[in-house]
Amino acid sequence: MAQLDRALVEFLNNYRGPEIKSLPKYARLREAFIAAIEDGHFQPGQKLPTEADLARSTPFSLGTVQKALKALSDAGVVVRRQGRGTFVADYQHQMDAPWHCRFIGEQENAFLPVFPKVILRKGNAGPGPWSAVLAPAGEPVLQIDRVILVADEFSVYSRYFANARRFGGLLEKSDAELERTNFKILLRREYNLPVTGVTQTVLLTRLPDDMCGALSQDKGVHGMKMEIVASSGLDNPVYFQEIYVPPNDRKLYISDSSSLPAFWI
């Protein structure tokens, strides 16, 4: 037990960053775990100390420990297994060149990094607003859901739809590739299909209860829903996407182009 206590004290001493008054205690502990995982201190698949051990051997209360581990679990950084404990998941990949989740950082010409986690994929999404756009003849529409962590501050929920007959190969991609690469790049690289046009609509609405859980939000919270239709050429829609954004203090850069204007560079 004493050895475990010393190990936890060493973990905090090495990975707890400078105290930021505006950052809640649970977030400081969460950031310490993320730093330790990124550094290899905790390995993928490794079991973490119990909540009780963390509360006993660190300056954080049991409630703070539980909240930090829940935030890590919701973001896909750890996996909580009933009756067995909490384990480090395969760590998330930062997405290269995001398009629809470009939140502005402290510097006006810089976007916050995003870390998607695939949580659902299926070959037939069933009927929905995407049906008339992507499969007017009644063909199946594939669906890929991701929870996207934005700079360790908050998460958004993405639902991606495409014609399953045309783009079924997307379902065969590894989680790592779907998390690391934005879908626009995949379409161009795998199908020689450049996205040339995007329409985006925004609605302020109550977020679905199941998504609130995935985003660590209270049920009933209101946020923003974006609907995106991307096309290649005239009258050739290639994907339909929904993005649910909870309340946050960041500006979201919205554009119909993946390139940035000169004043942003």
Provide a descriptive summary of the structure in words.
- With 265 residues, the protein is of the alpha+beta class.
- Helix content is 29%, strand content 26%.
- It has a 6-stranded antiparallel β-sheet. The protein has a two-stranded antiparallel ribbon with strand order 1-2. A two-stranded antiparallel sheet has the order 3-10.
- Helix 1 packs across helix 2 (25-38), helix 1 (2-15) crosses helix 3 and helix 3 crosses helix 4.
- It starts with a helix and ends in a 12-residue tail after the last strand.
Give the biggest beta sheet. 6 strands, antiparallel
Secondary structure category? alpha+beta
**Rounded radius of gyration (Å):** 20 Å
Strand order of the largest sheet: 4-5-6-9-8-7
Oligomeric composition of the shown chains: single chain
